[in-house]
Protein backbone atom coordinates (compact mmCIF):
# COMPACT_ATOMS: atom_id res chain seq x y z
CA UNK A 1 0.00 0.00 0.00
CA UNK A 2 1.58 3.30 -1.01
CA UNK A 3 1.94 5.88 1.79
CA UNK A 4 1.67 9.60 1.10
CA UNK A 5 5.05 11.29 1.77
CA UNK A 6 3.32 13.97 3.87
CA UNK A 7 2.20 11.29 6.35
CA UNK A 8 5.63 9.65 6.80
CA UNK A 9 6.98 12.10 9.45
CA UNK A 10 3.97 11.29 11.64
CA UNK A 11 4.23 7.54 11.18
CA UNK A 12 7.95 7.74 12.02
CA UNK A 13 7.02 8.81 15.55
CA UNK A 14 5.54 5.38 16.25
CA UNK A 15 8.17 2.86 17.42
CA UNK A 16 8.79 -0.18 15.31
CA UNK A 17 7.50 -3.52 16.62
CA UNK A 18 9.84 -5.37 18.99
CA UNK A 19 7.95 -8.67 19.08
CA UNK A 20 7.98 -11.45 16.49
CA UNK A 21 5.59 -11.15 13.58
CA UNK A 22 2.30 -12.93 13.96
CA UNK A 23 0.79 -15.31 11.45
CA UNK A 24 -1.43 -12.50 10.14
CA UNK A 25 1.63 -10.30 9.36
CA UNK A 26 1.19 -7.92 12.32
CA UNK A 27 3.51 -7.37 15.28
CA UNK A 28 3.51 -5.38 18.51
CA UNK A 29 5.67 -2.87 20.26
CA UNK A 30 5.85 -3.57 24.00
CA UNK A 31 7.54 -1.05 26.24
CA UNK A 32 7.85 -0.24 29.90
CA UNK A 33 6.58 3.02 31.37
CA UNK A 34 7.72 4.29 34.73
CA UNK A 35 5.70 6.90 36.60
CA UNK A 36 7.96 9.12 38.68
CA UNK A 37 6.74 11.18 41.64
CA UNK A 38 8.74 13.54 43.84
CA UNK A 39 7.66 15.78 46.70
CA UNK A 40 9.59 18.28 48.81
CA UNK A 41 7.91 19.69 51.89
CA UNK A 42 9.05 22.10 54.58
CA UNK A 43 7.22 23.85 57.36
CA UNK A 44 8.37 26.30 60.00
CA UNK A 45 6.59 27.79 62.97
CA UNK A 46 7.29 30.48 65.52
CA UNK A 47 5.58 31.23 68.82
CA UNK A 48 6.94 34.17 70.73
CA UNK A 49 5.71 35.87 73.87
CA UNK A 50 7.01 39.43 74.01
CA UNK A 51 5.35 40.20 77.35
CA UNK A 52 2.35 39.15 79.42
CA UNK A 53 0.26 41.34 77.09
CA UNK A 54 1.72 40.57 73.63
CA UNK A 55 2.37 37.36 71.74
CA UNK A 56 3.10 36.45 68.14
CA UNK A 57 2.45 33.31 66.14
CA UNK A 58 3.74 32.63 62.63
CA UNK A 59 3.81 29.67 60.25
CA UNK A 60 5.21 29.07 56.76
CA UNK A 61 4.74 25.94 54.68
CA UNK A 62 6.24 25.21 51.28
CA UNK A 63 5.51 22.17 49.12
CA UNK A 64 6.77 21.29 45.65
CA UNK A 65 5.71 18.11 43.92
CA UNK A 66 6.10 16.64 40.46
CA UNK A 67 4.57 13.62 38.78
CA UNK A 68 5.81 12.51 35.37
CA UNK A 69 3.29 10.27 33.61
CA UNK A 70 4.69 8.76 30.39
CA UNK A 71 2.52 8.05 27.38
CA UNK A 72 3.58 6.59 24.03
CA UNK A 73 5.60 9.56 22.76
CA UNK A 74 5.29 12.21 25.46
CA UNK A 75 4.78 12.56 29.17
CA UNK A 76 2.44 14.63 31.27
CA UNK A 77 4.57 16.76 33.58
CA UNK A 78 2.23 17.56 36.46
CA UNK A 79 3.57 19.92 39.12
CA UNK A 80 2.17 21.59 42.20
CA UNK A 81 3.70 24.45 44.15
CA UNK A 82 2.04 25.44 47.40
CA UNK A 83 2.96 28.29 49.74
CA UNK A 84 1.09 28.92 52.99
CA UNK A 85 1.91 31.83 55.28
CA UNK A 86 0.10 32.99 58.44
CA UNK A 87 0.93 35.45 61.18
CA UNK A 88 -1.13 36.43 64.20
CA UNK A 89 -0.59 38.98 66.94
CA UNK A 90 -2.55 38.84 70.21
CA UNK A 91 -2.68 41.81 72.59
CA UNK A 92 -4.20 41.73 76.06
CA UNK A 93 -5.36 45.24 76.96
CA UNK A 94 -6.71 44.15 80.32
CA UNK A 95 -8.00 41.06 82.11
CA UNK A 96 -11.30 41.56 80.24
CA UNK A 97 -10.25 42.84 76.81
CA UNK A 98 -8.26 40.86 74.17
CA UNK A 99 -7.46 41.77 70.57
CA UNK A 100 -6.21 39.40 67.83
CA UNK A 101 -4.90 40.48 64.43
CA UNK A 102 -4.44 37.76 61.82
CA UNK A 103 -3.05 37.82 58.26
CA UNK A 104 -2.55 34.86 55.95
CA UNK A 105 -1.59 34.30 52.33
CA UNK A 106 -2.01 30.98 50.54
CA UNK A 107 -0.90 30.21 46.99
CA UNK A 108 -1.41 26.97 45.11
CA UNK A 109 -0.12 26.54 41.59
CA UNK A 110 -0.90 23.26 39.87
CA UNK A 111 0.39 22.95 36.30
CA UNK A 112 0.15 20.30 33.63
CA UNK A 113 2.36 20.45 30.54
CA UNK A 114 3.50 17.95 27.94
CA UNK A 115 7.14 17.06 27.41
CA UNK A 116 8.54 14.78 24.70
CA UNK A 117 10.08 11.54 25.89
CA UNK A 118 13.75 10.86 25.22
CA UNK A 119 14.26 9.23 21.86
CA UNK A 120 11.17 10.73 20.24
CA UNK A 121 11.33 13.64 17.84
CA UNK A 122 8.22 15.59 17.06
CA UNK A 123 7.38 17.07 13.70
CA UNK A 124 5.62 20.40 13.99
CA UNK A 125 2.07 19.25 14.50
CA UNK A 126 0.77 21.79 16.96
CA UNK A 127 -2.67 22.56 15.65
CA UNK A 128 -3.37 25.22 18.26
CA UNK A 129 -2.07 28.73 18.71
CA UNK A 130 -0.40 27.85 22.04
CA UNK A 131 2.68 26.00 23.25
CA UNK A 132 0.68 22.76 23.27
CA UNK A 133 1.52 19.79 21.13
CA UNK A 134 -1.20 18.50 18.91
CA UNK A 135 -2.61 15.01 19.23
CA UNK A 136 -2.91 12.52 16.42
CA UNK A 137 -5.05 9.42 16.68
CA UNK A 138 -4.82 6.46 14.31
CA UNK A 139 -7.43 3.73 14.50
CA UNK A 140 -5.95 0.67 16.19
CA UNK A 141 -2.91 2.53 17.59
CA UNK A 142 -2.27 4.60 20.71
CA UNK A 143 -2.54 8.32 20.08
CA UNK A 144 0.66 10.35 19.86
CA UNK A 145 1.39 13.85 21.04
CA UNK A 146 0.25 15.68 24.10
CA UNK A 147 -2.92 15.88 26.12
CA UNK A 148 -5.53 18.01 24.37
CA UNK A 149 -6.10 20.01 27.60
CA UNK A 150 -2.45 21.03 28.10
CA UNK A 151 -0.77 23.28 28.92
CA UNK A 152 -2.95 24.00 31.91
CA UNK A 153 -1.55 26.32 34.60
CA UNK A 154 -3.65 27.63 37.49
CA UNK A 155 -2.48 30.09 40.11
CA UNK A 156 -4.82 30.53 43.04
CA UNK A 157 -4.11 33.20 45.66
CA UNK A 158 -6.02 33.65 48.90
CA UNK A 159 -5.43 36.76 51.04
CA UNK A 160 -7.07 36.87 54.47
CA UNK A 161 -7.06 39.64 57.10
CA UNK A 162 -9.01 39.33 60.33
CA UNK A 163 -9.33 41.47 63.46
CA UNK A 164 -11.15 40.12 66.53
CA UNK A 165 -11.85 41.74 69.87
CA UNK A 166 -13.11 39.73 72.86
CA UNK A 167 -14.59 41.53 75.86
CA UNK A 168 -15.52 39.71 79.08
CA UNK A 169 -17.68 41.29 81.75
CA UNK A 170 -18.74 39.05 84.60
CA UNK A 171 -20.64 36.09 83.16
CA UNK A 172 -21.02 37.83 79.81
CA UNK A 173 -18.62 37.63 76.89
CA UNK A 174 -18.83 39.50 73.61
CA UNK A 175 -16.76 38.85 70.53
CA UNK A 176 -16.80 41.08 67.50
CA UNK A 177 -14.53 41.76 64.59
CA UNK A 178 -14.13 42.01 60.85
CA UNK A 179 -12.62 39.88 58.14
CA UNK A 180 -11.45 40.67 54.63
CA UNK A 181 -10.74 37.89 52.16
CA UNK A 182 -9.64 38.11 48.55
CA UNK A 183 -9.53 35.13 46.20
CA UNK A 184 -7.74 35.18 42.85
CA UNK A 185 -7.96 32.53 40.15
CA UNK A 186 -5.51 33.02 37.27
CA UNK A 187 -5.72 30.35 34.57
CA UNK A 188 -3.71 29.69 31.44
CA UNK A 189 -4.98 26.81 29.35
CA UNK A 190 -4.22 25.50 25.90
CA UNK A 191 -7.76 24.11 25.66
Protein described:
The chain is mainly beta and about 190 residues long. It has one helix at about 10, and strands at about 35-50, 55-70, 75-95, 95-115, 135, 145, 150-170, 170-190.
Tally of DSSP helical segments = 1
Instruction: List how many beta strands DSSP finds.
Output: 8
Report the order of strands and helices: HEEEEEEEE
Q: How does the major sheet shape up?
A: 6 strands, antiparallel
Weakly predicted, low-confidence segments: none
| Strand percent estimate | over 45%
Distance between the termini: 36 Å
Strand order of the largest sheet: 1-2-3-4-7-8
Rg over CA atoms: 28 Å
Shape: rod-shaped
Mean pLDDT: 86
* SS-derived structural category: mainly beta
State the share of residues found in helices, binned by percent.
under 10%
Please summarize what this structure is:
The chain has 1 helix and 8 strands; from the N terminus they run H-E-E-E-E-E-E-E-E.
Topology:
Blueprint: H1 8-11, E1 36-49, E2 54-70, E3 74-94, E4 97-116, E5 135-136, E6 144-145, E7 152-169, E8 172-189
Antiparallel strand pairs: 1-2, 2-3, 3-4, 4-7, 5-6, 7-8
Give descriptors for this structure.
single chain, 191 residues, mainly beta, two-stranded antiparallel ribbon, 1 helix, 8 strands, 2% helix, rod-shaped
Amino acid sequence: VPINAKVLPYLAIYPLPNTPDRADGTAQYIGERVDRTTQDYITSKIDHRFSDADSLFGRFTSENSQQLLPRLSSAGDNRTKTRLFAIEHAHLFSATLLSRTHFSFNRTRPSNVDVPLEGYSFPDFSFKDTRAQGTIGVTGLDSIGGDTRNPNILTQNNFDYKEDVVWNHGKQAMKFGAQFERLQFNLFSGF
